[in-house]
Amino acid sequence: MLQKPALIDIGANLSNRRFHADLDAVISRAKEAGVAHIIVTGTSERASHDAHALTQTYPGYLSSTAGVHPHEAKNWNAQAARSIEKLAASKTVLAVGECGLDYNRMFSTEVQQRACFEAQLQLAVRLQKPVFLHERDAHDDFFALLRQYRPQLTGAVVHCFTGNTDELRAYLDLDCHIGITGWICDERRGDDLRKAVKFLPKDKLMIETDAPFLLPRNLPVRPDDGRNEPMYLPVVLEAVAAILRISPVTLAQQIRKNTEQFFDLLTTE
Ligand SMILES: [Zn+2]
């Protein structure tokens, strides 16, 4: 029998309300598709608590991150910092984040974003847990802060990397891991990314869906509601494997090893 490669989705927003009604079915479909483990992204104080609660409902199959997304940086304060710190210390929380800078939509000011990001970098250093990073249209400021803290961090993954080859090389110089989403499947806007991925060392690569967002555009059958979910992770694997000209099964083994080491995660078959 052909074994499906066991994959780990390092970023799925399963506490998003679009999963409230049918999460059991979503998880079953993910398992059937060969997804062995999912790390649920925490994007706000509330979402991080919800993500952590989900890890208790699906023990062993779900882990989470705890952090505040740059969009939410305006809500960062002493109370939120304490709450995230407490949460991030728990065993099933594998990383601090998602945190970073996003100057694309500016839901929080640059000053708020930088303060919120820096506090979470410091938290990750204190807890000695890796950071799960988000950067959009803010490469220079983001890079400067990350470089400052990188020597003290245990690990850093730039999640949903969508940048160009120069940006990729800069992150690799800081010994970052790179998270690739279904953005790579987008013929209209994934061009820079597809070029950059060719320069990505295989041991720095991880994959994610960012569900319910970023539904791969190349699905043969598109769900009516346009919702992405972890069962589509193999589509991302196959897109990356095609660019790297390597078999998906071989690549999946490498990615799994990277992911388990990076998050200090021991999954079971
Ligand atoms: Zn993100």
UniProtKB/TrEMBL annotation:
GO molecular function, one term: hydrolase activity
A Pfam family of this chain: TatD_DNase
Cited PROSITE patterns: TATD_2, TATD_3
Matches recorded under InterPro entries: DNase_TatD-rel_CS (IPR018228), Metal_Hydrolase (IPR032466), TatD-like (IPR001130), TatD-type_Hydrolase (IPR050891)
SUPFAM superfamilies associated with the record: Metallo-dependent hydrolases
Keyword terms, alphabetized: Hydrolase, Metal-binding, Nuclease
Domain of life: Bacteria
CDD domains registered for this protein in UniProt: TatD_DNAse (cd01310)
Name of the protein described by the UniProt record: TatD family hydrolase
Organism per entry: Undibacterium umbellatum
